[in-house]
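dumping the sequnces here before i forget
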Amino acid sequence: MRWLRYGEHGALVECGSLAEAGALRAVLADAHHPDVVELVPGARTVLLAVRPGSAALGELRELAESADLDHPPAGEPSEIEIDVHYDGEDLELVARTAGIGVDEVVELHTGAEYTVAFTGFAPGFGYLTGLPEPLRQSRLDSPRTRVPAGSVAVAGEFAGIYPRSSPGGWRLLGHTDTVLFDPKADRPALLTPGDRVRFRKAS
Amino acid sequence: MRTLEVVTTGPSALVQDLGRPGHAHLGVPPSGALDQAALRLANRLAGNPEHAAGIEATFGGLVVRAATSCTAAVTGAPVAVTVDGRGRGSHVPIHLRPGQELAIGTPSRGLRCYLAVSGGIIVEPELGSRSRDVLSEIGPPPLRDGDVLPLGQATGIPAGADTLAPPAPPDELTVPVTLGPRDDWFDVTGLSAAWTVTAESNRIGLRLDGTPLDRVAERAGTELPSEGILTGAIQVPPNGLPVVFLADHPTTGGYPVVAVVRPGSLSALAQARPGTTLRFRSSG
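..and the predicted 3d for all of it:
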């Protein structure tokens, strides 16, 4: 774990793996420190921003360095099930690349349990870990200029769902009607770091 | 209900308050007025709490009509302000009677003007803020001619006759930065060279032109897994031309951040119009 300075009131903590970053995020979130302004997990990092003049960075560093990252606090993750219509434009391509049938792609995708590792790209977009090996495939060579909202997709080690229409290069398996982000809702983002997700085949 | 009518928006008029920090883990940028000092001042002059929502007018040109009696103030880039055609000046409280029109001219220096009106603009907040985030498209849509904006009840006392000289944004800025987190990826001496603010700059970030920043040999071609971004981060994409992230920045990104602008300089960056020269100076 390496603490890097990030401006006057921040620190970027570099971890050895995605799992370690997830554990560190859980430890830091569990502290509920009142002076933390932002706590942003990344693929190998956790970014902290604190109130100017606060001693929070030092206190949290001490906490992090003494924490048992093999057994992070569980927190209170939501368990979310998302119904998917497996009709994505890249479903055949993903099956072919994996050397399996379309049905097996659906079985693999619905059979796994995912964790929201971090967010970004757009409000409510969660990078989900737990993707079965055969579905870990590279981004499209040429990204689409428009991916429809609700598209359920995979890229690299991650699964994800486009909360709204945007350009994108992930491989599309299908779509969901579930609302991923609503800025007017009490809980605006369906997916928050640490949450558990399962996909279900919509009938 | 007290209201304010937008007669003409000018090039870009957005409702802004102090933003919605604290949601970056959901992928939501902080947003808020780019020149926060100017919005706070406008609110004080209009008798509002500093966090009330006002209008950020880029390149001026905003004309509003008071439907009810109110106190207004224009701050930020120094600019001509008229009421029904009569010159009134910026950085002063201005009383408007029902039906009177306040017009903001085009600033000769700087970029963004802030209009505060007593009671503040009380459009529906999203995630605790009335700021328009142009990246995420959260918050009230960009204002259009003819929009009628609801105002809250005026409660405070306008900051009397304290006339403040508008700041004159310089043509060349020196911007203090804190090096890191990824300063070891670059030859950072290039930061102090002259950079020019380009016309592609917006509320998401200032895009700079100049001599590309070189990566050190051992980092050439290295990919960076996505990591969090804060306002003021100077991110360097593979072309070596830095982007200074402003309030509507993406919350994570896959290019290294070489340094972070000190918070006290963000207001000056908000007023840096295309063509402005700036140099970064690392301090501590």
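Chain B has two domains: 3-150, 172-282.
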